[in-house]
Design a protein that fits this description.
The protein has helices spanning 2-24, 32-39, 184-187, and strands spanning 42-51, 54-64, 69-80, 87-88, 106-107, 112-128, 137-153, 155-165, 168-177, 193-196, 207-221, 228-241, 256-270. By secondary structure, the chain is mostly beta strands. It has an 8-stranded antiparallel beta barrel with strand order 1-2-3-6-7-11-12-13. Strands 9-8-10 form a 3-stranded antiparallel sheet, with no helix packed on it.
Length: 272
């Protein structure tokens, strides 16, 4: 919750401060650096960002149409978290006598991890240029497209059975995903869970979940040289999938996600 408050605070500052910045950075005249910019007609950048429900990494290709407008194509990879996902430690009882020495924190009640590859098309439109080389160029940016969601089963290691043989107690462990009506008594029993399983568990069971998405933001580019892209972006986005996305077992799961985001990107512009 602390990260979400911080992100929303940043977004509030960005969106309320943009009009003031716009009033102070109106386009005046075309200098030598701006003339060089007009010769550029392509840009390519990479970036990463935080969302109120996850993170993203992306590659963005732009076709510079004129001084103010750039046509964009973006490919990104995102991870989405449910608000109820909270990591917790396995019960200390199972660490006695060196029985387990490599326990990992886990998400109690989590059924699936959800990721997505997204392919978007949109525009970036400049609303305020730099007053000088040390200034900031402000643009509005909007994208929309298709999203290929990937639902990956979440695996836990738990104690499957305990029995005695030859005067000693034997623990049998199992890595498993949630199976309704089959392993509820173990998967949803924090006294039986010993660790989160490795990420490789469930990779061969990934289920595609197609959908669509759209995003809108403000882009602040402060690169001193117009041959480069150095920008901070903040905005909001929405995603809609064809069915409910089952991330948690005993919590409400929805087919849509709304979030705010903040991202950093850097890259290069050139003539082609």
């Amino acid at each position: 919750m602390g990260e979400m408050r911080l992100l929303f605070t940043i977004l509030l500052v960005v969106f309320t401060g943009a009009p003031l910045l716009y009033g102070q950075t109106q386009i005046t005249s075309v200098d030598e650096d701006e003339e060089t910019e007009l010769e550029k007609n392509h840009e390519l950048s990479i970036g990463a960002g935080l969302k109120t429900n996850g993170f993203e990494i992306f590659v963005e290709k732009g076709k510079i149409l004129d001084r103010k407008n750039t046509r964009l194509f973006q490919v990104d990879f995102i991870s989405i978290r449910h608000p109820k996902e909270v990591k917790q430690k396995p019960v200390d009882f199972y660490q006695i006598s060196g029985l387990l020495d490599n326990q990992k924190d886990y998400y109690f009640g989590k059924q699936n991890g959800f990721f997505a590859f997204r392919f978007g098309y949109g525009r970036k439109k400049m609303i305020a240029d730099k007053a000088d080389k040390s200034g900031v160029r402000v643009s509005i940016k909007y994208l929309g497209g298709v999203s290929l969601g990937l639902l990956k089963p979440y695996y836990l290691e738990y104690i499957d059975s305990i029995y005695r043989t030859n005067d000693r107690t034997v623990f049998e462990f199992k890595n498993d995903k949630y199976r309704e009506g089959v392993n509820d008594d173990k998967f949803l029993n924090n006294r039986a869970i010993t660790s989160a399983s490795g990420f490789s568990h469930g990779l061969d069971e990934i289920e595609p979940v197609p959908g669509v998405y759209g995003k809108f933001g403000l882009n602040f580019d402060w690169a001193a040289n117009n041959e480069f892209v150095t920008a901070l972006e903040a905005g909001v986005e929405g995603q809609l999938y064809y069915k409910k996305v089952p991330i948690m077992i005993n919590s409400m799961n929805k087919p849509y996600f709304l979030s705010a985001y903040i991202a950093f990107q850097f890259g290069k512009r050139w003539y082609k």
